[in-house]
Every structure is written in C-alpha cells, then in structure tokens.
Amino acid sequence: SCIHNHRQMRKILPVLLTLLCFCVSVHAQLRLKNARFQSWETLVFRIPADSAASVLSDGMVDPEWYLSRQPVTVFRTDNLPTETLPIGHYLFFSLVNNNLVYEYFNQTAVQVRPVNNNHRVQLELRDSTGAPISDARVWVNGHESPYQPALAAFQVNGRHPDNALVKIAVPGDTSFVRLTAMQIENNHGWSPWWNRLKSSRAGKLIRWPGKKIERLFTRNYYGWPYRKAPRKPKGYMVFNKALYKTGDTVKFKAYVLDKHNRRLKRSLAVRLSYQLNGRNITLQLASLKASFAGSYTHEFVLGDSLPSDLNYRIGLWTGIDKEVLNGSFRIEDYLNDEVASHSLRASSDKFYRGDSMVFTLTAKDAAGLPVMDG
In the prediction, which pLDDT does 165 show? Predict the structure, then answer.
C-alpha cells in the first residue's frame, strides 16, 4: 500500500509542478500588465518668487539642480494635501511613464477677481477673510498697475491684457495669476463698440427704420402689435463678508449700469430690509453718490437692535418704487473655532524595527491661516 501510494505521488508530482509553474507564469503576466507607470511619491521643493516667475515665463531650465537638493516634504502621488503647505511657491516632481515631470503650485491667501466694465480691466484683491486689499503692488506683464481708490481696484493698463501674467505682492505673500480670455470676455473688439453705438443717439437714429420694419413682423410675450419688453438696470454687489454678527461693520461695493448699458451716475438711496414675524421691515440707511461712474461704496455698523439669525437685503433705489440693484447677507451669533481644520501626516506608510517615526501635524483657523505653536 505504501509502495502504491508512492507511485501515485510520483505520477501526480509532475502534474502539480506543471500547474504550479502555470500559476506562477500567469501571476507574473498579470503583475506586468498592471504595472504602475507613475512614481509612488512626489517630491516638493520650495522656490523663491523670482524663480517662480522664471518658471512661468520661460519654463524649467535645469531640473537636475532641484533633484540634487533636499525637498521640503514628500507627498504620495495619489494624495497631494496641498492645503497643508505654507504660503509660498513650490515645484512638484514625479515620474510618469519613465519621464520626469514637474508642476508649479502657488499657495496664497490673496483672492483675485477680474472686473470688466467694457473700458478697462480692473483687479479686485481680497484676503482670506474677504476684506479688500489696497496696499498691494500689482504688475501686469512687468508693468505696474496703479490702485484706483474710487474703484477700490487696480486698473490694468493696455487694450489687450488677455493671457497676461499678473504678479501680486503683499507683505509676506507674492502670487502669480494669468488673465485668460474668458475672464476678460468682451473687453475689446467689435462687440463693446457696437453695444455703445446702439445706445447712442446716432446709433438709435441709424437703426430706427430697420427696427420699425422688424416690429411689424415680430410677436412676443407682451402681445400684438409688438411692445418692447422693459429693460432693467444691471450690475453686481459684493460684500466684505458673507456672514456677520452684531457689532460688525458691513462694507459693500456696487457697480451699476443703466438700461442702456451706460454707467450710472445719479444718487441712489440705500435701504436695508428684512422679515420678522411675518412683517416686512425696511430701513433707510443713506443716500449715495457715485464715487466713480457706475461705482458705489458704503459701510455701516450692525447695531444690537437688528435681530440675529436672519437674512438681510440691501437695495439701491432711484425712487420710491424703483430698485436698480440688491444684495443679501446674514447675521448670526457665531464664534470662530480656534482650530477649524487639521491634518496628521506620517513620514512613511510603513515602519520597520529600528526606524525613526516622524509625524507632522498642521492646523488652520477659521480664516484659513496656520495656527501658531502652543
């Protein structure tokens, strides 16, 4: 019986070896097929502002110089916690398909908002809390742009600023942005010129015969014969914060165009309205004059007579029953958390006996600024 079993084992052994080799071969093919073509880690190097400007304008010159230095940190390629980086300029290096690639990253607390009034592009700057910034220095393609107090913005000189490189410098924070054609749409070309011509007296006189003929064959919602739909003023209103509490100062800026797309110049009444216990309450705040054609700014303190946990509406009025623009904000009794967000990062995913374990803990407050040690 033992001899018989031994013979059977000798017969089965080649089959098992064949199957084992087949399994190993298939396993090796699957691993090669699903091989990773991207590095597991991304090296992060911090660079000065002048080097960042050179990279953005001329591209990378000598990547080997960076790779011979010590990176400030190392991230997993499939998880880049960029929010943990302090304010500054960085280069990310990684391997993709056996090629060394890099990416520029700018951590900044400055928010840039391009404003187009069909005359000149303006840049509104705000900090992480939404407060306007007026003490910055701004360069567009190497030319410094002046700050216009009447506009509360920086005016971009030049008629064709699309794809321009903008450098913004505030104490402790230098950033770069690039204006795109989408951001400054209709800033130049045929469309703004034609819109201004249509709104002028000469343009109306030229277009009058054609409009009369068009109205004979046009029907719209307002009935037959043709009655033109009323046109309304348009614009925008921005606040220094989205949420306020009692005692805060509300600051807002409005940019208003009339129904002919011309910048409004007349005085406007500022009214604050809200609903309380089913009643509509309206307060007259002030009468505003345009600080600049189409531009209106105002600020006021929220008194303790205004109830909390309500939405408020700011309206700009030309008369008793004609509102040209409005915006809204909310009052709440809130407290900023000392630590709004935090993260813990280890220096490695795996540790072995004898390794040094290094952990990095970062925290930010409600304004998005790093929390100081202690």
Answer: 82
